Amino acid sequence: MTRPNLPKEMTFLMIVNNDDVARFAYESGVTRLFVDLEYMGKDVRQKGLDTWKSRQTMQDVTRIREAVPEGHLLVRINPLHENTASELGEV
Fold first, then answer.
1. 3 vs 6: CA distance, rounded Å
2. Model confidence pLDDT, tens digit, residues 31-79
3. What is the pLDDT of residue 46?
4. Which of 11, 37, 42, 76: CA 20 to 30 A from 51?
5. Between 29 and 7, where is the model more confident?
6. Cα distance between the two ends of the chain
7. Over the chain, what HEC string results?
8. 38 Cβ partners below 8 Å, 6+ apart?
9. How far apart are CA 62 and CA 17, in angstroms?
10. What are phi and psi of 13, to 5 degrees?
């Protein structure tokens, strides 16, 4: 894939859940493709806010990785809890 020559100081992130969008974003210069697995406590923390609440899964991580194998993935997991080690092992 060819990418634009963007300044090295700028980091672009994009939450993605679509293979074609992930490829397009990467080819357009997005530095990190972001998959958001966090859901614990999100409703309380964002209560009353007009925010997008992700329900992405490990299958989404795999799909985006396969769509853009050379891309840099950023995967957010849940806050520390009793199954954090298992979550990290999956990612």
1. 9
2. 899 999 998 888 888 888 888 777 899 999 999 999 999 999 999 999 9
3. 82
4. 11
5. 29
6. 25
7. CCCCCCCCCCCCEEECCCHHHHHHHHHCCCCEEEEECCCCCHHHHCCCCCCCCCCCCHHHHHHHHHHCCCCEEEEECCCCCCCHHHHHHHC
8. 54, 76, 77, 78, 79
9. 11
10. -115, 150
Least confident of 9-13, 17-21, 54-58: 9-13
Q: What confidence score (pLDDT) does residue 7 get?
A: 67
Residue at 77: amino acid letter: I
Two tokens at 22? 């992930």
The whole-number pLDDT of residue 77 equals: 93
* Domain regions of the chain by residue span: 13-90
What tokens were used for 24?
A: 């397009």
Residue located via tokens 């997008």:
52
Structure tokens at 26: 């990467």
Radius of gyration of the chain (CA): 15
